[in-house]
Design a protein that fits this description.
Chains A, B: It catalyses: prephenate + NAD(+) = 3-(4-hydroxyphenyl)pyruvate + CO2 + NADH. The structure is a homodimer of 310-residue chains. Chain A has 310 residues and is an alpha/beta fold. The first copy, chain A, has helices spanning 20-31, 45-54, 64-68, 83-90, 108-114, 160-172, 182-209, 215-220, 226-232, 237-246, 248-271, 274-293; strands spanning 12-16, 37-41, 59-60, 73-76, 99-102, 123-129, 150-153, 176-179. Chain A folds into two domains: 3-180, 3-Layer(aba) Sandwich (Rossmann fold); 184-298, 6-phosphogluconate dehydrogenase C-terminal like domain (6-phosphogluconate dehydrogenase C-terminal fold, Orthogonal Bundle), CATH 1.10.3660. An eight-stranded mixed β-sheet of chain A has the order 3-2-1-4-5-6-7-8, with helices on both faces. The structure holds NADP nicotinamide-adenine-dinucleotide phosphate (2 copies).
């Protein structure tokens, strides 16, 4: 079997949604030398035009139904809230025995929304590539987005063979894969991603609101810590609205823990309990050490940011 | 006047405290070709030994009193809570007419703690270089830490000449300077730095606490947003305890606003008000745009992080 005929190679792949995640999939497939024929569809004519101009996909078509025709692998790469309606629309047009996958950041509600529409014999293999930037749209993707990042696979009754092929596909794109149970997935993501995003959005909103501190000052002095919040809080509003609307339970649970802890620290500040703060701040250092040891970040000053010259 | 005899050049400079901030001052002075004689003191013999080994300062002495003898510029670079006692100790040994400065992250309480001890005729010029990393100690400093960063000057009755010299000094180290009124300083810093740090510490604490999500998973999947919080939350516990103990009022005020906003978003999640979330997330994008336009960050994927190979 030549490299381009491995299990990760599907004859025809359909990308539904042509934003950051889908366009990065296409560029990474190209880099990997896969010879699949890739069809793409996005909701707006504007995005479809941009995709054509960028050379994204081998063919851009005007409906999701048309895109999935004859496809061996269909990847739903639209906001989480749009997955159900799309699945319903494409279901009658799916090739028997094909594999349907999605890349949504939330898994339980997506599975519940997609699964009932899929015909018997179609394999559904939900995934979640843990990679992204704050940019979105067809022009945002790049081939190395998934390199060394985790792509979580949340099995939902697909055949072992179908699941293994999707895993091989993501590995060919550069990712490391791991299977995770659906509810655990949504909880882990609430902790490492969803609640941190909500908090960052909130902090940026507070700064923006504060009339006594001008936006100008917030921007000028942002390197003191705030800047990293603004990066996170620049992510796509539609995507994040959908994440919070669909991962409600885990988000609210982690938020509850967060405010409980925050109130304890706030109380220590008010009462002058320096020891409590010191102990808390000492404990949190350990996690950072673990992340550096695991090679998940750089220790370079200023995050190894490319130097910004004025 | 040759470059090394400009107003930024002091004949003798004393650095009290030899951590990230002081060591970076020394290396930046060296890079700028200043010919001041620099004396250093730190509390522990261990830090003093390390400083000697690293070639930090021209002379390391065993007491703050000795360090400030004959100094034209004395810079207090110890945690905020240690400023008052140090000022009291050195006061009788200060050269008449010299300039005392500090680099504390909080200004109101530091000024109140230091000012009463200083003799008539000594100029006190409080400063706050808005630059740092999560590392601390004598080995953490580097010459370019202040390049293009802001150093805020909070005038407290020093002569115009003394203030201008301190500004020139910081500019020679690479910083941009700006004067700011003391209460406004503490509020701005609460917004752009102190509360973001507290929130990051809290989020990392929550993740660490959560038994159902292992530390291992938190570390593995940290790149999804959480990682940037751990970076902030790895900062020195003593420094940050002191910041919150001394900038209590502004911190509690901003924290109050933060929880108020967070509850509004939490409520929107609970009640399914997607429009509120969408509008909120759209608004916060603007601030990010301002930061990029102001050259305060890079737009590169993954913050322009140096690629971490496994
Ligand atoms: N960005 C991340 O960090 C990240 C990471 C992991 C997973 N994900 C998940 O990946 C998925 C896509 O995210 P993305 O970052 O690629 O988003 P994106 O860049 O905003 O692109 C979204 C794409 O979906 C299309 N779309 C939106 N609503 C649609 C609808 N109702 N019907 C049909 N098409 C629709 C958009 O078309 P138009 O351009 O025509 O509107 C666009 O092509 C989301 O489920 C997200 O949760 C994102
Ligand atoms: N790091 C930042 O991001 C940052 C940014 C702007 C301003 N600042 C401010 O700069 C100051 C110094 O911070 P840093 O980051 O340089 O801290 P650091 O790296 O932890 O160094 C602190 C230095 O102060 C000495 N010290 C501590 N307690 C002392 C005491 N009671 N008496 C005498 N010396 C004492 C320490 O000596 P030993 O090593 O012997 O304990 C050490 O040399 C703080 O006021 C901080 O608020 C920090």
């Amino acid at each position: 079997m030549s490299e381009t005929q491995g299990p990760e190679n599907y004859g025809k792949v359909a990308l539904i949604g042509l934003g950051l995640i889908a366009s990065s999939i296409f560029w990474a497939m190209k880099r990997a030398g896969m010879d699949s024929h890739v069809t793409g569809y996005a909701r707006s004519a504007e995005t479809r035009e941009t995709a054509k101009r960028l050379g994204l996909c081998h063919e851009i078509v005007d409906s999701a139904e048309e895109a999935v025709k004859d496809a061996d692998l269909v990847i739903l790469a639209v906001p989480v809230g749009a997955m159900g309606p799309i699945a319903e629309a494409i279901a009658p047009h799916l090739k028997p025995g094909c594999t349907v996958s999605d890349v949504g950041s939330v898994k339980k509600e997506v599975i519940e929304a997609v699964r009932p529409h899929l015909p018997e014999g179609v394999n559904f293999v939900p995934t979640h590539p843990m990679a992204g930037t704050e940019h979105s749209g067809p022009g945002a993707g790049f081939a190395s987005l998934y390199d060394n990042r985790w792509c979580l696979i949340v099995p939902d009754g697909a055949s072992e063979e179908a699941t293994a092929r999707v895993e091989a596909f993501w590995q060919a794109l550069g990712a490391k894969t791991e299977q995770m149970e659906v509810e655990h997935h949504d909880l882990v993501c609430a902790v490492v991603s969803h609640v941190p995003h909500l908090i960052a959005y909130t902090m940026v909103g507070v700064a923006d609101d504060l009339r006594r501190v001008s936006d100008q000052e917030v921007i000028k002095f942002s390197a003191a810590g705030f800047r990293d919040f603004t990066r996170i809080a620049a992510s796509d509003p539609t995507m994040w609205r959908d994440v919070f609307m669909t991962n409600k339970q885990a988000t609210l649970e982690i938020l509850g823990r967060f405010t409980e802890e925050l109130f304890a620290l706030q109380r220590a500040i008010r009462t002058g309990d320096g020891q409590l703060l010191f102990d808390y701040f000492t404990r949190t250092r350990e996690i950072r050490r673990g992340i550096l040891q695991a090679g998940q970040d750089t220790d370079a000053p200023d995050f190894g940011r490319v130097k910004v010259e004025k």
